[in-house]
From TrEMBL:
<dbReference type="GO" id="GO:0019752">
    <property type="term" value="P:carboxylic acid metabolic process"/>
</dbReference>
<dbReference type="InterPro" id="IPR050073">
    <property type="entry name" value="2-IPM_HCS-like"/>
</dbReference>
<feature type="domain" description="Pyruvate carboxyltransferase">
    <location>
        <begin position="1"/>
        <end position="115"/>
    </location>
</feature>
<dbReference type="InterPro" id="IPR013785">
    <property type="entry name" value="Aldolase_TIM"/>
</dbReference>
<protein>
    <recommendedName>
        <fullName>Pyruvate carboxyltransferase domain-containing protein</fullName>
    </recommendedName>
</protein>
<dbReference type="Pfam" id="PF00682">
    <property type="entry name" value="HMGL-like"/>
</dbReference>
<keyword id="KW-0808">Transferase</keyword>
<dbReference type="InterPro" id="IPR054691">
    <property type="entry name" value="LeuA/HCS_post-cat"/>
</dbReference>
<dbReference type="InterPro" id="IPR002034">
    <property type="entry name" value="AIPM/Hcit_synth_CS"/>
</dbReference>
<dbReference type="Pfam" id="PF22617">
    <property type="entry name" value="HCS_D2"/>
</dbReference>
<dbReference type="GO" id="GO:0046912">
    <property type="term" value="F:acyltransferase activity, acyl groups converted into alkyl on transfer"/>
</dbReference>
<dbReference type="InterPro" id="IPR000891">
    <property type="entry name" value="PYR_CT"/>
</dbReference>
Amino acid sequence: MGDAINEGVTTVTLADTVGNNIPQEFGEMVTYLKTNTPGIDNVVFSLHCHNDLGLATANTISGVCAGARQVEVTINGIGERSGNASLEEVVLALKCRGAYVMDGVYTRIDTRHIMATSKMVQEYTGLYVQPHKPIVGTNCFVHESGIHQDGILKHRSTYEIFSPEDIGAEKSQDSCIVLGKLSGRHAVKDRLRKIGYEISDEKFNDIFSRFRELTKQKKRITDADLIALVAYGDKIASEKLTINGNGSSLFV
């Protein structure tokens, strides 16, 4: 590498082509090369990581922490075999943590275009990301656990380290709260209030009890389900709750 620099190259790249490294050793390699390669400070030190062990983003960040200042990444992490380091993951890691643990490293990427770009690539390539894909997956801002929902309703940053607006996603507190078997009283009562119902504590206790029964039969509880629980609560309090073919609640 030193000979190449001496011959005039302006960029050198450390590649984990088969995705075999782990973050500690990859960072140590960068440190070793930065320390022992003549002229290394006069060229751009770049990284190219593959994701065969699911560590491409972690290895890339480790290399940046060790002094690399260029990274080769792909949108949605698409690439050979298991893919490459994901642009959106690396960029958001630098945005969220660069100032604290990476000597102020940052990019000039406008992160507000990340979601639109990700969706465009998915449409053109036909390679759609899984729902739990970090940053751009559909589940990124979805909260179902009761304690998480309570925290989100009080302050979004409790369980979200960046906001939907940061990546150009639509902000909707309603859509991020998914009512289901793990939901608590706060989330259910808040949703009832947002769809127009101010419920007394006594009546809410009854509604919430039947809400919990409904979650044994449905994974997701909709606004229509809540309206049915309120509107027909007194009438069907002692009757059996069933689900019709299209997923709506029916009381029979």
